[in-house]
Amino acid sequence: MTNRRPQSRDIATADAPPLAAWLLGALFLGAVALLSLPAARAASGAFGWTPLWLLGMPLASLAALAASRLSLRLPRRRMPDSSPAMRRRRPGTAQARRRTVPVRQRLPRAA
């Protein structure tokens, strides 16, 4: 039995969620539809601008999925206690309160 180091290609395919594969398939089919069907390049009354739905939305979803997966891998950074933002805060100060406005007496209405 040999200890084989995993290749980056193996890691990328093992971690690929099924949603990413589905979105890539939708993006491919949308590109094929845009290139082969002239009506897919126009706007429709029911759906709006069709290239947005065929290419733009799958691309935006893939970008959001990649950004969410990337943010999960990044370590969380904590603000050090000696940062300028921590020094600006004054402990023990109360929140400001509104002043009470004196109630004005209403004058009787003239008819």
Q: How would you characterize this protein structure?
A:
This is DUF4175 domain-containing protein. Keywords: Membrane, Transmembrane, Transmembrane helix. This protein has a domain of 61 residues. Helix content is 50%, strand content 4%. It has a two-stranded antiparallel sheet with strand order 1-2. The longest helix is centred in the middle third of the chain and has 24 residues. It starts with 7 loop residues before the first helix and ends in a 23-residue tail after the last helix.
Observed structural traits:
111 residues; mainly alpha; two-stranded antiparallel sheet; single chain; 50% helix; flat
Could you give the count of β-strands?
Answer: 2
Q: Order of strands across the biggest sheet?
A: 1-2
Q: H/E series, N to C?
A: HHEEHH
The main sheet comes to: 2 strands, antiparallel
What characteristic shape results from the CA principal axes?
flat
Number of helical runs? 4
Mean pLDDT: 77
Uncertain spans: 8-14
* Amount of helix: 40-55%
Distance between the termini: 103 Å
Rg from C-alpha positions?
Answer: 30 Å
Instruction: Look at the helices and sheets and give the structural class.
Output: mainly alpha
Quote the beta fraction.
under 5%
